[in-house]
Specification:
The complex is a heterodimer of chains A (about 290) and B (about 250).
Chain A: H1 19-24, H2 27-49, H3 81-117, H4 119-134, H5 137-147, H6 152-162, H7 164-179, H8 182-189, H9 194-231, H10 242-249, H11 258-287
Helix pairs in contact in A: 2-3, 2-11, 3-4, 3-6, 3-7, 3-9, 4-7, 5-6, 7-9, 9-10, 9-11, 10-11
Chain B: E1 7-16, E2 21-30, E3 35-40, H1 46-54, E4 61-70, E5 74-77, H2 91-103, H3 107-120, H4 126-129, H5 139-152, E6 157-161, H6 169-186, E7 189-194, H7 197-203, E8 206-211, E9 214-220, H8 221-226, H9 231-238
Parallel strand pairs in B: 3-7, 3-8, 5-6, 6-7
Antiparallel strand pairs in B: 1-2, 1-4, 8-9
Helix pairs in contact in B: 2-3, 2-5, 3-5, 5-6
The chains are: A mainly alpha (about 290), B alpha/beta (about 250).
């Protein structure tokens, strides 16, 4: 007989089912993390997997179709596409993660301040986020990337400036709703300092949602990194990057379509993996 | 009998920002160890009055008049015990935290005091050994934790905002008895907001009946219940459903 379960069952003594049990029952999280882990493992061990160097040219074997020697063929300079693809994952994924650290922390912190204190703190922070939101995202990204010079540094600076907004908005809303809940009010009247309420009580409560947003936001960030690379104001050419790879392969789209399609697929793959992880985490935390 | 009251409220008025009066000219006083019941229908301003004493008015409500003079600290027991606890923090930790900040003792000592409070509230020993979160406790246990947290402030006045409304009938009784026992042991004064006249009668020596933000009747509990002057009080008393076997005995409140 088929058992239909909607809620995780409670143990006999009323404990919640264990965290492992809950993860096991969330296929999107499992699949998503598996996809992501595969990518990370490849990126970490690529020097041992591939005999080629990502910028090693071999002009006698350019634009070759996939074969046993070159799993995904070679590009116009005879570089191994698979090797470049995974080395590009190294660059793009590490930039993606690093560029999210500062915006995530500032966004969550400012969001909590705005939601918890309200009044003028909220007004100022909301004004800031609304101003940034009013601009098209890519316009800001391209302007700042140009102004701060192409390359990794530009990406970091851009996202430090604009990346925190999405977190601030989500966390502000959450904090404001928690603030209306009795336990926050009660903690205030019980004489706990505001800093402690924010860090020890508010933060754990808003963090799950913020992490879910982080996962979706990373997808957007990855696409932005790739777009900048594609436009030629992202990562500088010798370093492999999916964006530059797509743009380089464009000239050969009729004869060697995989040159652009494969890095494009890599972006989609990573995006799906992160979205599934985000979805799965949201599911787990909702069931709580 | 010449002790001065520890809480005095004179002509307290509360209104929304758009000047809609919520509480109008409410006044009462409380002596040490005394308990006052505030009864009345929903929306009559009972809870708001209580929150005003604590300085915890909701957004958009402000005090438009009157004075609240209080010589001692107060702490509140909330209507919804689960909502009054941080869902992601172990309950004992929350209790110890309040002890730490209010009683100014070391972290270690605060935990010891917290465990003593647990014992005092009759909570099971298992709480001491394993971290339990509010969602893992029953409503009654949560309410005991909330009471323990309130007591950790060593309040002169315990403000109870319908502490039993969200609980089972049997648990209600246990909580009421616990509060009554603690009051005897610790001697705090109490303002007890409730819908339930029977609870108010059991717990409080004085009773104030509120309607539409005003106190319509105020006095000794027995006097008010046996000899209600205001038609609204009369109505409240009549609205209590008697148990079938007591019907006709006419001795509900003796």
């Amino acid at each position: 007989m088929k058992r239909i379960r909607t809620e995780p069952q409670l143990h006999q003594d009323g404990r919640q089912p264990s965290i492992i049990h809950r993860i096991w029952n969330t296929p999107s999280l499992l699949v998503g993390s598996l996809m992501f882990v595969v990518l990370i493992v490849l990126a970490v061990f690529i020097p041992y997997i591939s005999p080629y160097h990502p910028s090693e040219q071999n002009l006698s074997a350019f634009l070759q179709p996939p074969s046993a020697e070159h799993w995904l063929g070679t590009d116009q300079l005879g570089r191994d596409l698979f090797t470049r693809l995974i080395y590009a994952a190294r660059t793009d994924l590490s930039i993606m993660v690093l560029a999210e650290v500062v915006p995530f922390c500032t966004g969550v912190f400012l969001g909590m301040l705005a939601g918890y204190y309200g009044k003028w703190v909220d007004t100022v922070i909301t004004l800031l986020t609304d101003t940034f939101i009013a601009f098209p995202f890519y316009l800001i990204v391209i302007i700042v990337a140009f102004a701060s010079g192409a390359g990794e540094r530009g990406i970091y600076i851009t996202f430090m400036l604009v990346g925190w907004i999405v977190f601030a908005r989500v966390v502000r809303g959450l904090s404001a709703s928690f603030r209306e809940q009795e336990w926050v009010a009660s903690a205030q009247t019980l004489g706990l300092p505001g800093v402690r309420i924010i860090l020890r009580h508010l933060l754990p409560n808003v963090l799950p949602q913020a992490v879910v947003v982080l996962m979706t936001d990373m997808v957007g960030l990855l696409v932005a990194i790739v777009t900048l690379g594609y436009l030629g104001i992202g990562i500088a050419p010798p370093t492999p990057d999916w964006g530059t790879m797509i743009s380089d392969g464009q000239s050969f789209i009729t004869t060697a379509w995989w040159l652009s399609a494969v890095p494009g697929f890599a972006v989609v793959y990573t995006g799906i993996a992160l979205s599934l992880v985000g979805d799965g985490l949201a599911d787990i935390w909702r069931k709580k | 009998m010449s002790t001065s009251p520890i809480l005095e409220i004179e002509a307290l008025s509360l209104a929304t920002k758009s000047n809609e009066t919520l509480v109008d000219n409410v006044g009462f006083s409380l002596n040490k160890g005394e308990s006052l019941g505030l009864v009345g229908e929903s929306g009559s301003g009972k809870s708001l009055t209580l929150r005003a004493i604590l300085g915890l008015l909701p957004h958009g409500v402000r005090q438009t008049g009157g004075v609240i003079k209080s010589e001692v600290s107060s702490a509140m027991v909330f209507q919804d015990p689960r909502g009054a606890l941080d869902p992601l923090c172990p309950v004992v930790k929350q209790l110890a935290e309040v002890v730490y900040f209010r009683q100014k003792v070391s972290r270690k000592a605060s935990r010891v005091v917290a465990l003593e409070l647990l014992e005092m509230l009759g909570l099971p020993d298992s709480l001491k050994r394993t971290d339990r979160y509010p969602s893992q406790l029953s409503g009654g246990q949560c309410q005991r934790i909330v009471i323990a947290i309130a007591l950790a402030c060593k309040p002169g006045i315990l403000l109870c905002d319908e502490p039993t409304t969200a609980l089972d009938v049997t648990v209600q009784r246990q909580i009421i008895e616990t509060i009554a026992r603690l009051q005897q042991e610790l001697g705090f004064a109490m303002v007890f907001v409730t819908h339930n006249l029977a609870v108010a009668a059991a717990m409080c020596s004085k009773l104030a009946v509120m309607k539409k933000g005003q106190i319509v009747e105020h006095g000794n509990t027995l006097n008010v219940l046996q000899n209600p002057q205001n038609p609204y009080t009369q109505m409240l008393i009549n609205s209590v459903l008697p148990l079938p076997e007591l019907e006709g005995s006419g001795q509900l409140w003796s």
